[in-house]
Amino acid sequence: MAKDLVNTLADLKEQEVLKIVKDRLSAGEDPFKIMGDARKGMEIVGKRFADSEYFIPDLVYSGEILKAVTEIVKPKLTTTMESKKLGKIVFGTVAGDIHDIGKDIVVFMLDVNGFEVHDLGVDVPVQKFVDKIKETGAPIVGLSGFLALAFDSMKETVEAIKAAGLRDKVKVMIGGGQITDEIKNYTGADAYGKDAMTGVTLAKKWAGVG
Amino acid sequence: MEKQWEEMSSDEKQEALFAKWMSPEGVQFKSPEAEKAYKERATRIKDALQLKKKPDRVPVFLIPSFAPAFYSGLTPREVMYDYEKANTAWRKFYLDIQPDAHFGCVAPGPGKVFDILDLKLYKWPGHGVPNNTTYQAIEGEYMMADEYDALIQDPTHFFNTVYLPRIFGKLEAFKQLPNLTTYVEIYGTGITFFPYGLPDVQAAFKALLEAGSESLKWMGYFGAFMKEMPELGFPAGQVGYTKAPFDILADTLRGTKGIMMDMYRQPNKLIEAMDAMLPFWTQKGIIEAKMGGCPIIFIPLHKGADGFMSDEQYKKFYWPYLKKIIQGMVDEGVFPFIWAEGGYNSRLEIIRDLPKGKTAWLFDIVDIAKAKKALDGIACVAGTMPTDLLAVGTTQQAIDHAKRCIDVAGKGGGYIMSNGAFFDEVKWDNLKAMVETVKKYGVYK
Questions:
Q1: How many angstroms separate the CA atoms of B238 and B21, rounded?
Q2: B175 and B222 in a common domain
Q3: Which residues of B touch A58 (CB under 8 A)?
Q4: Domain end among B186, B202, B229
């Protein structure tokens, strides 16, 4: 009954999802298969979000359901799950700005879509981005910001990446409430995403999988 | 004999409040020119708002966040703590750029009060974020998922003993305060009042008294500004604010994530809580309008923006309760000035369900032609100079945008040019060009 979990999760029926997961575990089913179905359900959620059928509350709620599923299944996993990642991304809200809702949603969507996201949090100093890019070798960088002051922080971050000799090794996307093409040009980023799904589409394109 | 307030219709109440604003009490205009400018500006704004008459030209508003501080070369930190500097900077901003209204100088707020009470809800310049940045809220659950019943049953006691002790470190002891609604007679007096004797409760009250004194000091500066600006010829563009019930709960009580869970896990409790908040927040707008001698009250909107929920969710959780607040205030003569922060394209059809000529909608990100079409004859439209053009665009881009807004939304009146979002440091030439363009190009013939 693998289909049930996939669709029940996609339909955001929290209680039913948890019951199915518990039942399947007690029936001795492979926990990896259960997590695989949960991930398929999340893919449908992502697609519905991209199609404007789901909105932010639905997306955030799906994340909570997935968290609850993981908590039930995790103790039964004997080895860590190795899933093939599409690529590495360094992400963070730029210096001086502590807004995290938008960033968290994009990071979540990138993760669900198979990227290995290194989330540096909020108010991230320029150097921390540079260090993390060097450390991980990530070819994609995401800069988030809600305030107008983030325009300059983004610009400074892109300049620091350039000064470190990394600019031709990474693609930079920016996003946030007041971010537009004008701001993209101002900061020297490669692209801006108006919502989480645009961010995913950009990342897939840059990773050569979209 | 003049009609008593209680005997007036809502229209008469609105006119009475507008009349007070047009001829402000106790204001000694600095010059005949200032008086003339005041009357012209107030008339222009009133005409645009009420949709009854085409104004002489499109009015222009500038509603800044910390922009006046940057304009005077000051940091947000300085204007939060030095009230005199804040007043001087805000006055200079309005006098130099000459928009049609002022919006007080309340934004910087009394920094020392936040220190005294140890406000946990925000980071502010010099206190968690650098001196040259603005204050920013810290997302969190300051009301828990299982506390809805307590809030619904007794909002005031909940705020006093749960919410305030959480957001102010120095008021933590208030969680021990008694519910005074249960005190009516001699029996039980000692039991009721002993918490006020506890050392930590007394320390909390001392902090509160100190915060009160500091707030009063700040009010002196704020009051002087609110009196001086009309004397210089600038009417107040608003004198208070209230919030949409959903945002009251979503912004600083349950937090963004918490509220989204509640929409699924306990939708009825969320709705009951919004109903419980309604009387307090409707009354707040009415009281502030009457105290301020001006009918215009802001309602900044946050989490009903495009994408933040579906239209169905908006119709279920957001709009009905926002509409109740709007209607409650309109009944008492208040003119709600609703600021839709973020995108609002998908909500335009829904918000048409309003009494005609009783509200204004300031849009941040919207298709201005669609907004005008949807609200034509229903509400005044305002906006939508975007932050990106003000901050990094060319002056010509700002001028072109202003002209397009005037062409599209200015048609027939009922439009106010304004920035779309609160702004800080921008290109001052662009801001000035925006105002100048309206003055030249926005004249009705």
A1: 10
A2: yes
A3: 310
A4: B229
Q: Are residues A72 and A93 in the same domain?
A: no
Say which of A61, A183, A195 has its CB closest to residue B307. A195
Q: What is the pLDDT along chain B (445 residues), one digit of tens a residue?
A: 578 999 999 999 999 999 999 999 899 999 999 999 999 999 999 999 999 999 999 999 999 999 999 999 999 999 999 999 999 999 999 999 999 999 998 778 899 999 999 999 999 999 999 999 999 999 999 999 999 999 999 999 999 999 999 999 999 999 999 999 999 999 989 999 999 999 999 999 999 999 999 999 999 999 999 999 999 999 999 999 999 999 999 999 999 999 999 999 999 999 999 999 999 999 999 999 999 999 999 999 999 999 899 999 999 999 999 999 999 999 999 999 999 999 999 999 999 999 999 999 999 999 999 999 999 999 999 999 999 999 999 999 999 999 999 999 999 999 999 999 999 999 999 999 999 999 999 999 8
Cβ pairs A/B, distance under 8 A: 83
Domain presence at residue A83: no
Cα pseudo-dihedral B34, B39, B44, B48, rounded to 10: 130
- At A98, the amino acid letter reads I
Q: A67 and A114: one domain?
A: no
- Please state, as a whole number, how many other Cβ atoms lie within 10 Å of the Cβ of residue B154: 15
Q: How far is B143 from B269, CA to CA, in rounded Å?
A: 13
Structure tokens of B244?
Answer: 């949409």
> Among all residues of chain A, which has the CA nearest to that of B393?
A182
The domain total for chain A is 2
Q: Domain containing A187 — which CATH number?
A: 3.40.50.280
Residues of A within 8 A of B257 (CB-CB) are: 60, 101
Q: How many domains does chain B have?
A: 2
- B139 close contact with A: CB closer than 8 A: yes
Whether residue B126 lies inside any domain: the answer is yes
| Secondary structure tally for chain B: helices H, strands E | 20, 9
- Which CATH number goes with the domain that contains B253? 3.20.20.210
Please give the ipTM for the structure prediction: 0.89
Let me know whether B32 and B56 are in one domain.
yes
Question: Quick check: B227 and B27 in contact, CB under 8 A?
Answer: yes
| Selected residue of A180, A186, A187, A195 to mutate for chain B interface (largest B Cβ count, 10 A) | A180
Q: How many residues does chain B have?
A: 445
**For residue A92, what are the domain limits?**
88-206
